[in-house]
Write a structure and sequence with these properties.
Number of strands: 19
Helix content: under 10%
Largest sheet: 6 strands, antiparallel
Radius of gyration: 17 Å
Order of helices and strands: EEEEEEEEEEEEEEEEEEE
Structural class: mainly beta
Shape: globular
């Protein structure tokens, strides 16, 4: 198990140069050094504009703060409006998308995975005070604290911290005072 916190995160320019994202974690691609296997980040979007294009990458976006965004997809007449906090929205990274802010800046959580090599699921886990929740196991699991304080196998997870767990069985996620945690399960395509 590895714990990452704000001191480990890096501010990185967007691929299209339109802003900066805080990269929480990036795993290298197993065969192509110019690509990544998985990337987790949190971005502040302060102006409307195009999304960066990532061919071959599956993306999941989730609004954390702000009124939300409207996404215009090339060739699709109706916008997708993301105005609910912590509701994951998945889409292919190669699609051309224009993002329009609804009412000022937003912060969003981003999951990106190389489609040919792996797949990932993202869920938001709400823990009531004193609750323990069992999460399914996977070869790789990432947990990111959004609110409160939780723990896994006695290892604490605070707000803005990320836990990276390799080869876990099922996981017992607990919070004494209540917490909200992003849980990401990563599965390599070679796994059965």
């Amino acid at each position: 198990m590895r714990r990452l916190g704000p001191a480990d995160y890096r501010d990185m320019p967007w691929k299209n140069g339109g802003g900066v994202t805080r990269e929480l974690l990036k795993l290298p691609h197993p065969t192509d050094p110019s690509r990544f296997l998985v990337r987790l980040s949190i971005a502040t979007v302060s102006a409307s504009g195009p999304f960066s294009v990532f061919p071959g990458v599956d993306r999941t976006l989730m609004i954390l703060d702000g009124a939300g965004v409207a996404l215009s997809f090339a060739g699709v007449p109706k916008d997708v409006v993301l105005d609910q906090h912590r509701q994951p929205f998945a889409f292919p990274g190669e699609v051309e998308i224009h993002c329009r802010l609804l009412e000022g800046p937003v912060r969003d959580f981003n999951l990106m995975v190389d489609r040919a090599t792996a797949e990932a699921t993202l869920a938001v886990v709400h823990l009531a005070p004193g609750e323990t929740r069992t999460l399914a196991g996977a070869r790789t699991v990432f947990l990111h604290g959004l609110e409160g304080r939780a723990s896994v196998a006695g290892t604490p997870l605070a707000v803005e911290e990320t836990l990276w767990l390799e080869a876990p069985e099922s996981l017992a996620l607990r919070s004494d005072a209540g917490a909200v945690v992003v849980a990401i399960h990563l599965k390599h395509r070679t796994e059965r």
